[in-house]
Amino acid sequence: MSARNEFEREFFEGGSWTPPGGWQLDRRGFLKLFGGGLFVGLVSAKAVAQEAGRNFGDHALPKDLSAWLHIAADGQVKVFTGKVEVGQNIRTSLAQQVAEELRVAFDSIEMVMGDTALVPYDMGTFGSRTTPTMGPELRNMAGAARQMLIETAAARWNADAATLVAVAGKVTDPKMLRSLSYGELTRGENLVKIVASDDPFTPATAWKIAGTPVPKAQGRDFVTGKHIYPSDVVRPGMMFGAVLRPDGFNAKLVSIDTSAAEKLPGVTVVHDGDFAGAVAPHRLDAQHALAAIEAKWDVPAQPSNRELFDVLKSGSGNGFGDRGQHTVGSVAQAMETADVKAEEQYTVQYIAHAPLEPRAAVAEWDGDKLTVWTGTQRPFGVRDELVQAFGIPAENVRVIQPDMGSGYGGKHTGEAAVEAARLAKAAGKPVKLEWTRREEFTWAYFRPAGLIEIRGGARRDGTLVAWEFHNYNSGNAAIGTPYNVPNQIIQYHSANSPLRQGSYRSLAAAANHFARESAMDSLAHGAGMDPLEFRLKNLTEPRLIAVLKAAAEKFGWGSAKSTPERGFGIACGTDKGGFVATCAEVAVDPATKKVRIRQVVQAWDSGAIVNPDGLRNQISGAIVQGIGGALFEQILFADGRIQNASFGQYRLPRFSDAPQIEVVLVDRKDLPSAGAGETGIVGLSPAVGNAIFAATGARIRSMPMAPRTAAPGQAETVFKS
Amino acid sequence: MAELVLNVNGARMSVDAPSDEPLLFVLRNRLNLTGTKYGCGEGQCGACTVLLDGRATRSCLTPVAAAANAKIITIEGLEQQGQLSAVQQAFLDEGALQCGYCTSGMIVSATALLKNKRNPSDDEIVTAMNGNVCRCGTYPRILAAIKRAAQHGAEGASQ
């Protein structure tokens, strides 16, 4: 099995893409499913133009529907989207937006998400794209539905539609004092409307349900243990599976003897090429069977932490593809005339997503039809993996994604789904496969490690004149600088990553912000300027300036001076439509060098806020998650093996690591809503590094900054956490 | 295999299971009580926490035979006649979850804490809860929820 770069990075970093397939349900299928009501589907404006004047009758619906909604005779609204809920609260915030445009109560909306048999094709839930793309699409559709209901009422009453209003799930005629509920209007009707994705909708300034702190949808099921996560799915006659793992990465199976395992009662052993596994009526039986398989693997020599950054620097490989160099002016000339210079090298180690729910899948075959329940951010991507693995048509595969135990970019792929389906096929029964924590740490993928080299120059008055930035391997996200610099070279260099790597919350934006904002702090120090003043002097982006000032004001920036025991740091940045500024207060014990983050104030602007409570939760959570990568999380690996593949060895942020956190939200109702699940993580590590510098004068240029022990090849830092 | 009788959420349940099978898997896979979660299998994350005679216990490290004489309470047993416990209600009121996968273990651990200590300080909460991981980083809200539950009398602790 190839362990490298199985991801098309451009895909995740916003490259162009066209959906390969359509949506299968035709009008007859739709009627069968729902028995009438109002159906509104959404297509691109271009497709609507092509369909203009066409009566859908019994024709197939347009193939490129991206979402749709249905209002039943009882007034219940079902909204169908391929986006998935992974803890980012999108089930709630999308429903709020539909309720808003449709003028119905939040509770009357049911979001049907991530079931490939029921929802239109969707590329996946990543890149903070759901709020800026699916949000407006659903709002358009709901607005069109509202208009259609008004027209239906107008026809029924023989009234002028312009005199009617839609409020609280009813169309009302204020003049004649009459009203009909949406359910009454749709009863017995088969209303179909296909709308374009660029109709106008209710402005955020007029929102009544969107923009408010609606609690998490179905929250009660989560506090009572009733919610069914992917790993909780049970099917009749279900067995448990386990998969034999190689001794190391890129290993070849030399020999295997399954005879002892096959003799165990109730056990089915599967062996096909390098894949081997066991199925048994109970989880432990499957694991015992696995232990009874004798396998020898040949693990080739491969790089370890010690060589990591040399490998990443030693020439581009078959990674994600180099980007062209972004060059403005002449950095070389500008550096010659600069009064203040910084020439620095930063590193970040691989880290693990460690979603609390490891990969899990339940697979069930019915002849050559396959259904898989699994936790993934890309249900259709997993469907395609299954199509490829088993050579069956896409319409024979259904992937269902119950709201899952988080992902953070780490569950784009369908490993457990494919494995469970292989085992289920061999056993002839439904099979549940739950990855162990060790498997999740070893056989999933990591946030890329990276090496970043920076040259920066400024005049004595703090004006930036030169900025050169090279990122090796970790990625392209937020690689540019938001500061005004007349001379720039910015380049991403791909590499042969020793470990399998992929998306992680904010992609490379966290690493690139760590390096850039730390180097900016060096330059501010070199110019003898306050770090906030230095940043403001070189910025003109009003939204970034606004969050910087908001964070600084709430934090009381400048009101106290850093001491050897207490440091204050600041950082800011922007990516994926979000603007963030972070102030951190760090306590350093001068004797033990133990670092503790005491306080974080983070200001955030992602346009019009859809749900302020959910947004605060995301931003605060991103700060806490950021602490791990900033201070202590790192994957240790040698000879093709992960050496800290457990929670006992891989330290995660815990209660005792959480600082006092204050989130300042800047609500820009005049601007479209951007996604907020990712970029909130980028400010923490540089703000903390800058605070450590302010206290101690030591600039830490490697993440994690305060691990228990440094990774081999990394200089031992003096700080601990 | 042994025929074991367990007392789970006030009901006697008999199961056929190897006596060394972790209680977690017995609850989840043999009794279909899936509210208790697997997170690490080594007692490091707290997702599998249940109450054994009122004490917060990692069910992933507890052989089922060791629980045979205990009163076992899982997340499913905290709600009484449709009424959420004070801790459950406080988690909802504070919005103290994101993906919610750690929530069962958090609520059960907090229930045990409040049973021992009616009004814990922030430090006492952090110490008691430090073995429970929320990878979404919802700690400040969970802390607030536990304090809220404590203020509201913590009926949940009487379980």
What does this structure look like?
The complex is a heterodimer of chains A (721) and B (159). Chain A is of the alpha+beta class. Chain A has three domains: 9-215, Aldehyde Oxidoreductase, domain 4 (2-Layer Sandwich), CATH 3.30.365; 230-299 and 359-434, Aldehyde Oxidoreductase, domain 4, CATH 3.30.365; 315-351 and 446-703, Aldehyde oxidase/xanthine dehydrogenase, molybdopterin binding domain (Aldehyde Oxidoreductase, domain 4). In chain A, strands 11-12-9-19-16-17-18 form a seven-stranded mixed β-sheet, with helices on both faces. Chain A has a six-stranded mixed β-sheet with strand order 14-22-21-20-15-29, sandwiched between helices. Chain A is globular. Chain B has two domains: 2-76, Beta-grasp domain (Ubiquitin-like (UB roll)), CATH 3.10.20; 86-158, Orthogonal Bundle (DNA polymerase, domain 1). Chain B contains five helices and five strands; from the N terminus they run E-E-H-E-E-E-H-H-H-H. In chain B, strands 2-1-5-3-4 form a five-stranded mixed β-sheet, sandwiched between helices. In chain B, a hairpin with a 2-residue loop joins strand 1 (2-8) and strand 2 (11-17). At the A-B interface, helix 7 and helix 18 of A face helix 1, helix 2, helix 3, helix 4 and helix 5 of B.
Q: Mean of the pLDDT scores of chain A?
A: 91
In the CATH scheme, what's the topology name of the largest domain in chain A? Aldehyde Oxidoreductase, domain 4
**Overall 3D form of chain A:** globular
Can you name the CATH architecture of the largest domain in chain A? 2-Layer Sandwich
Which class of secondary structure composition applies to the elements of chain B? Answer: alpha+beta
Q: What order do the SSEs of chain B take from the amino end to the carboxyl end, as H and E?
A: EEHEEEHHHH
- Domain count of chain B: 2
CATH homology superfamily name of the largest domain in chain A: Aldehyde oxidase/xanthine dehydrogenase, molybdopterin binding domain
| Termini separation of chain B | 31 Å
Q: What is the number of independent domains of chain A? A: 3
Question: Which spans of chain A of ≥5 residues are poorly predicted at pLDDT below 50?
Answer: 1-24, 52-59
* Radius of gyration over C-alpha positions of chain B, nearest whole angstrom: 15 Å
First CA to last CA of chain A: what distance?
37 Å
Shape category of chain B? globular
- Tell me the strand order in the biggest sheet of chain B: 2-1-5-3-4
The largest inter-chain interface, given as chain pair and residues per side, is: A-B, 58 and 57 residues
What is the percentage of strand-forming residues of chain A?
A: 15-25%
Major beta sheet of chain B, specifics? Answer: 5 strands, mixed
Please state the structural category of chain A: alpha+beta
- Percentage of residues assigned to helices of chain A: 25-40%
